[in-house]
Specification:
mainly alpha, rod-shaped, about 0% strand, about 80% helix
């Protein structure tokens, strides 16, 4: 059984709900598209966008554009949230330096000093290490277990604490990864719809409707550009934050190995 102190050390906080973010981004995107981009002031008497008017040009992209904008805003919002959340999970001080300092304390068998470093550092690695150190102190008092069994108990504590922290570290990253594909696909859908409109204008009897043809081509190109931009940003941000999570998990593995070495070294022959 874990002590109340242990439960407190591995307690994790909830992040931002991706569902709420997507809903709010959708509201903003559709309002921006239909109210700002669709404002009559962006168009001339014939309904064509004014020269150099970005909002009017964007409005020509059709109803797929606000969907792609929703995905784009979602990526940007979740990326900002992940940036601050992962920086907080890394702790107050430099993570590699913290890991080094903890290993020094463990080599000196200074468990109390390692605790103090964790309490000052905070973050995911510090939480996991604190839980392991508490279990380390607990197993030293067990007289009915072998050293191998005690070492396994410590390792299991590290795995359990890591399992509690890891979902918080990876929160919202699957959404960003999904948008990296979905954004491109939605842009492709808009492109296809725009080309259908263009071919429809070309297929009319007599001279093609040049206005409808231009609108269809513009819709296709705008959706392509927005979809590719959204997918590219999502891939960049996902890989960036996935690397940050990997760095944190690597630090956990390193300090976990250090704890195991410390226990083996200090209890050899006992």
């Amino acid at each position: 059984m874990k002590t109340p102190k242990q439960e407190k050390k591995v307690k994790v906080s909830k992040g931002v709900s991706s569902g709420v973010v997507i809903l709010l981004c959708g509201v903003v995107a559709f309002c921006f598209f239909y109210i700002i981009c669709g404002s009559p002031s962006n168009f001339d008497e014939k309904g064509s966008p004014l020269p150099g008017n970005l909002f009017g040009t964007l409005f020509q992209g059709g109803f797929i554009i606000p969907i792609v904008l929703t995905l784009l805003l979602t990526v940007l919002t979740l990326s900002v949230e992940r940036f601050f959340a992962l920086n907080k999970q890394r702790g107050k001080n430099n993570l590699p330096q913290f890991v080094h300092d903890v290993k020094v304390k463990l080599d000196q068998s200074d468990i109390k000093g390692a605790h103090e470093l964790c309490n000052n550092q905070k973050g995911a690695v510090a939480n996991i290490l604190n839980a392991a150190l508490i279990r380390y102190e607990d197993v030293e008092k067990m007289e009915d277990r072998s050293n191998d069994e005690k070492s396994a108990i410590i390792q299991k504590e590290i795995e359990e604490a890591t399992a509690l922290e890891l979902p918080t570290l990876e929160q919202n990253l699957p959404i960003i990864a999904t948008i990296s594909t979905l954004g491109t696909l939605m842009g492709l859908l808009g492109t296809v719809l725009g080309m259908i409109r263009s071919f429809g204008a070309m297929g009319q009897e007599g001279a093609p409707d040049s206005t409808a043809l231009a609108i269809g081509i513009a819709e296709a190109l705008l959706n392509t550009a927005c979809g590719i931009a959204t997918g590219a940003l999502a891939i960049i941000f996902y890989n960036f934050f996935a690397q940050k999570v990997q760095n944190i998990t690597n630090a956990v593995d390193e300090v976990g190995f250090a704890i195991g070495q410390t226990y083996t070294k200090t209890h050899t022959g006992k």
